[in-house]
Design brief:
The protein is an all-alpha fold. It has 3 helices and no strands. The chain starts with a helix and ends with a helix.
Amino acid sequence: MSEQEKQLDTNKESKTKAAKKKDKPGIFARIARWFREMKSELKKVQWPTWKQTWNNTLTVIVCVILIGLFIWIFDWAARWVIAALLELVKG
């Protein structure tokens, strides 16, 4: 490859880089675009009604209580079994 061809390749690369830099929007333009896109996406969301929110909240509360009771019963049974085993070992 001749010196002239290398120089042409270098010039093409630098022009391409300069063009890419020129095409890239500034930071404030990118932030503004992000907010516009976010607003557009939020309009597409199907928000739940108050009744749906209330029903979901009650479902979560009931599940938490049931799981809490299950853990409490399991803990009580495990404590009882361990105490019984310790009494057998003790004597």
